[in-house]
Task: structure prediction
Amino acid sequence: MTEVATLAWRQYRLERRLFWRNPSAAFFNFLLPLLFLTFFGAAFHSDHTELRIIVPGIAAMSVMSTTFTALAFNMTFLREQGVLKRIRGTPMPGISYLLGIAGNAVTNTALQVVIITVAGRVFFGTGWPREWVELIVFVIVGVVCFASLGVAFSHVIPNFDSAPAYVNAVFLPVVAVSGVFFDTAHSPGFMKGIAEALPLYHLIAGLSGAMVKGTNLSQNVSALGVIAAWAVLGTVFAVRGFSWEQRRA
Result:
C-alpha cells in the first residue's frame, strides 16, 4: 500500500509538471474562468445581486471544467493513444497512475475555486465565503461527481478527434441551463425543470449558499443529495465501462 501511494505521488508530481508545460491547458483551466468573471463582473459591477449569482456560478462551472471536461479529454486521449495499455504492461500499479491523474484534476479544481473566491472578494466586493464547511463539502462532492462522470463519459467517446464535439455537446448545454450566469428563477418552467435534474444546478446552489447567502449545510442537504446520487451513478459507469485497451487499431 505504501508503494502504491509513493508511485501515485510521483505520478502526480509528473502530471503537475506536464500541466504547466502546456500553456493552452493552463489558459483554459485558470485564465478563461477569470476572463468570464472579469467580463460579467465589469458588466454588472453596479448590480451586487447579479455578482452574487455570477461568482458562485463561475466557481461551480470551474469545478465541472477541471474535472468532467479535463478527465473526459484526458482519459480518451490516454486510451486511444495506447498509453493506458502500455502502463498496464509496466510494473507500475494501474491505480497509482490513475490516482496521479485524478490528483492533478483535483488540484486544478482547488486552485480554481480559491482564485475565483479571492477575485470575487478583492475586485467585486462579494465578501469571503460565509460557510467554509459547506463550501469545502460541496467542492469535494462536486469533484467526485464530475470526475466520475467525466471518466464514465470518456467511454462513450469513440476517438480523440471527436472528443471536443462530444464533450462540448454536454458541457455547453449544461452550463447554459444551470444558472451559471443568471438566476434560474426567471427561466421558463421546462428549462428550470431540466436544470434541477442536473448536478451543476445543485452545485451552484450549494456554493451560492456557502459563498454569498450564508446558509448552513443542513439547508442545502437536498442539493447535496442530488450531487451525491449523480456521483454514485457516474462511479458505477466509470468502473463498469473502463478499459485499458484502445478501441481502434
Summary: The two ends are 35 Å apart (CA to CA). The chain has a mean pLDDT of 86.
